[in-house]
Protein backbone atom coordinates (compact mmCIF):
# COMPACT_ATOMS: atom_id res chain seq x y z
CA UNK A 1 0.00 0.00 0.00
CA UNK A 2 1.31 3.43 -0.94
CA UNK A 3 1.91 5.93 1.82
CA UNK A 4 -0.47 8.87 1.40
CA UNK A 5 0.55 12.52 1.57
CA UNK A 6 -1.96 15.38 1.80
CA UNK A 7 -0.77 18.91 1.01
CA UNK A 8 -3.11 21.66 2.20
CA UNK A 9 -2.55 25.12 0.71
CA UNK A 10 -3.17 28.40 2.49
CA UNK A 11 -5.28 31.53 2.31
CA UNK A 12 -5.74 32.69 -1.30
CA UNK A 13 -3.72 29.66 -2.37
CA UNK A 14 -4.21 26.97 -4.99
CA UNK A 15 -2.93 23.42 -5.45
CA UNK A 16 -0.74 24.56 -8.34
CA UNK A 17 0.84 27.55 -6.59
CA UNK A 18 4.39 27.85 -5.29
CA UNK A 19 6.27 24.70 -4.36
CA UNK A 20 3.25 22.39 -4.13
CA UNK A 21 3.32 20.99 -7.72
CA UNK A 22 7.06 20.37 -7.52
CA UNK A 23 6.83 18.61 -4.14
CA UNK A 24 3.83 16.55 -5.30
CA UNK A 25 5.70 15.41 -8.41
CA UNK A 26 8.86 14.56 -6.44
CA UNK A 27 6.85 12.49 -3.95
CA UNK A 28 4.88 10.69 -6.69
CA UNK A 29 8.17 9.76 -8.37
CA UNK A 30 9.19 8.19 -5.04
CA UNK A 31 6.04 6.08 -4.87
CA UNK A 32 3.80 8.19 -2.64
CA UNK A 33 0.10 8.73 -3.28
CA UNK A 34 -0.22 12.53 -3.19
CA UNK A 35 -3.37 14.61 -2.78
CA UNK A 36 -3.40 18.40 -3.09
CA UNK A 37 -7.05 19.43 -2.82
CA UNK A 38 -8.33 22.80 -3.95
CA UNK A 39 -9.66 24.18 -0.71
CA UNK A 40 -13.08 25.85 -0.96
CA UNK A 41 -13.37 29.62 -1.19
CA UNK A 42 -9.66 30.33 -0.67
CA UNK A 43 -10.27 34.10 -0.63
CA UNK A 44 -13.02 33.84 2.02
CA UNK A 45 -12.24 30.55 3.74
CA UNK A 46 -14.51 28.95 6.32
CA UNK A 47 -13.04 26.59 8.90
CA UNK A 48 -15.90 24.09 8.67
CA UNK A 49 -15.69 23.90 4.87
CA UNK A 50 -11.93 23.37 4.93
CA UNK A 51 -12.09 20.67 7.62
CA UNK A 52 -14.88 18.95 5.68
CA UNK A 53 -12.83 19.10 2.45
CA UNK A 54 -9.81 17.57 4.17
CA UNK A 55 -12.02 14.83 5.62
CA UNK A 56 -13.58 14.05 2.22
CA UNK A 57 -10.15 13.97 0.58
CA UNK A 58 -8.68 11.68 3.24
CA UNK A 59 -11.60 9.31 3.74
CA UNK A 60 -10.51 6.95 6.50
CA UNK A 61 -7.37 8.35 8.17
CA UNK A 62 -4.42 5.98 8.35
CA UNK A 63 -1.56 5.87 10.82
CA UNK A 64 0.84 6.19 7.88
CA UNK A 65 -0.74 9.36 6.44
CA UNK A 66 1.43 12.47 6.23
CA UNK A 67 -0.08 15.96 6.20
CA UNK A 68 1.75 19.04 4.98
CA UNK A 69 0.04 22.33 5.74
CA UNK A 70 1.14 25.72 4.49
CA UNK A 71 0.08 28.95 6.20
CA UNK A 72 -3.71 28.76 6.74
CA UNK A 73 -3.39 25.09 5.79
CA UNK A 74 -1.52 24.55 9.07
CA UNK A 75 -4.41 25.56 11.33
CA UNK A 76 -6.79 23.74 8.96
CA UNK A 77 -4.82 20.52 9.50
CA UNK A 78 -4.88 21.06 13.28
CA UNK A 79 -8.66 21.61 13.15
CA UNK A 80 -8.97 18.43 11.06
CA UNK A 81 -7.04 16.48 13.72
CA UNK A 82 -9.41 17.83 16.37
CA UNK A 83 -12.36 16.51 14.33
CA UNK A 84 -11.12 12.91 14.25
CA UNK A 85 -12.80 10.31 16.44
CA UNK A 86 -11.09 8.82 19.46
CA UNK A 87 -8.64 6.18 18.30
CA UNK A 88 -8.15 7.65 14.82
CA UNK A 89 -4.53 8.65 14.22
CA UNK A 90 -2.32 9.93 11.43
CA UNK A 91 1.40 9.40 11.00
CA UNK A 92 2.99 12.82 10.72
CA UNK A 93 2.13 16.50 10.34
CA UNK A 94 4.53 19.02 8.80
CA UNK A 95 3.54 22.67 9.25
CA UNK A 96 5.15 25.35 7.08
CA UNK A 97 4.74 29.07 7.85
CA UNK A 98 2.23 28.05 10.48
CA UNK A 99 0.22 29.54 13.29
CA UNK A 100 -2.75 28.85 15.54
CA UNK A 101 -3.47 32.35 16.86
CA UNK A 102 -5.39 35.30 15.44
CA UNK A 103 -3.19 37.15 12.95
CA UNK A 104 -5.49 40.16 12.72
CA UNK A 105 -6.83 39.11 9.29
CA UNK A 106 -10.64 39.20 9.42
CA UNK A 107 -11.03 36.79 6.46
CA UNK A 108 -9.36 33.95 8.38
CA UNK A 109 -10.33 34.79 11.98
CA UNK A 110 -12.94 32.00 12.02
CA UNK A 111 -10.08 29.45 12.08
CA UNK A 112 -8.72 30.87 15.33
CA UNK A 113 -11.85 32.06 17.13
CA UNK A 114 -11.85 29.07 19.49
CA UNK A 115 -8.83 27.60 21.29
CA UNK A 116 -7.12 24.59 19.75
CA UNK A 117 -7.75 21.38 21.68
CA UNK A 118 -4.09 20.44 22.05
CA UNK A 119 -4.91 17.22 23.91
CA UNK A 120 -6.99 16.05 20.94
CA UNK A 121 -4.28 17.13 18.47
CA UNK A 122 -1.60 15.18 20.37
CA UNK A 123 -3.91 12.16 20.68
CA UNK A 124 -4.34 12.05 16.87
CA UNK A 125 -0.67 12.46 15.93
CA UNK A 126 2.62 12.24 17.78
CA UNK A 127 5.04 13.36 15.05
CA UNK A 128 5.09 17.05 14.18
CA UNK A 129 7.54 19.36 12.44
CA UNK A 130 7.32 23.14 12.31
CA UNK A 131 9.24 24.89 9.50
CA UNK A 132 9.49 28.65 9.26
CA UNK A 133 11.57 31.46 7.79
CA UNK A 134 13.19 34.29 9.70
CA UNK A 135 11.88 36.85 7.19
CA UNK A 136 8.22 35.76 6.95
CA UNK A 137 6.19 38.99 7.03
CA UNK A 138 2.81 37.24 6.69
CA UNK A 139 3.19 34.97 9.72
CA UNK A 140 5.85 36.41 11.99
CA UNK A 141 8.34 33.91 13.44
CA UNK A 142 7.03 34.30 17.00
CA UNK A 143 3.69 32.76 15.89
CA UNK A 144 5.47 29.69 14.56
CA UNK A 145 7.62 29.48 17.68
CA UNK A 146 4.52 29.40 19.88
CA UNK A 147 3.04 26.76 17.56
CA UNK A 148 6.16 24.63 17.95
CA UNK A 149 5.98 25.09 21.72
CA UNK A 150 2.37 23.85 21.79
CA UNK A 151 3.36 20.85 19.68
CA UNK A 152 6.40 20.23 21.92
CA UNK A 153 8.85 20.22 19.01
CA UNK A 154 11.78 22.44 18.05
CA UNK A 155 11.16 24.96 15.30
CA UNK A 156 13.20 24.53 12.13
CA UNK A 157 14.06 28.10 11.20
CA UNK A 158 15.39 28.89 7.74
CA UNK A 159 16.77 32.14 6.35
CA UNK A 160 15.40 33.97 3.34
CA UNK A 161 12.37 31.84 2.44
CA UNK A 162 9.82 34.56 3.26
CA UNK A 163 6.36 33.02 3.51
CA UNK A 164 7.45 29.98 1.45
CA UNK A 165 5.35 31.24 -1.45
CA UNK A 166 5.85 31.80 -5.17
CA UNK A 167 5.92 35.54 -4.46
CA UNK A 168 9.07 34.82 -2.46
CA UNK A 169 10.49 32.82 -5.37
CA UNK A 170 9.87 29.44 -3.70
CA UNK A 171 8.74 27.10 -6.47
CA UNK A 172 10.72 24.07 -5.27
CA UNK A 173 11.26 22.89 -1.71
CA UNK A 174 13.88 20.12 -1.60
CA UNK A 175 14.22 20.36 2.20
CA UNK A 176 10.69 18.97 2.51
CA UNK A 177 11.17 15.68 0.63
CA UNK A 178 13.18 13.71 3.25
CA UNK A 179 10.80 14.84 6.02
CA UNK A 180 7.91 12.88 4.51
CA UNK A 181 9.55 9.51 5.19
Topology:
Elements lengths: L3 E5 L11 H10 L3 E3 L11 H12 L7 E5 L1 H12 L8 E5 L21 H7 L3 E6 L7 H11 L3 E4 L23
Helix pairs in contact: 2-3, 3-4
Throw out a few tags for this protein.
5 helices, 181 residues, alpha/beta, single chain, six-stranded parallel β-sheet
Which shape, going by the Cα principal axes? globular
Give the SSE order as H and E letters: EHEHEHEHEHE
Rg from Cα: 15 Å
Residue ranges: pLDDT <50 for 5 or more in a row?
Answer: none
Structural class: alpha/beta
Into which percentage range does the β-strand content fall? Answer: 15-25%
End-to-end separation in angstroms reads 14 Å
Tally of DSSP β-strands? 6
Molecular structure report:
The protein has helices at 20-29, 47-58, 72-83, 118-124, 141-151; strands spanning 4-8, 33-35, 66-70, 92-96, 128-133, 155-158. The protein has 181 residues and is an alpha/beta fold. The protein has a six-stranded parallel β-sheet, sandwiched between helices. Helix 4 links the parallel strand 4 and strand 5. Helix 2 packs across helix 3 and helix 3 (72-83) crosses helix 4. The chain is globular and about 40 Å long. The two termini are 14 Å apart.
Please summarize what this structure is.
With 181 residues, the protein is of the alpha/beta class.
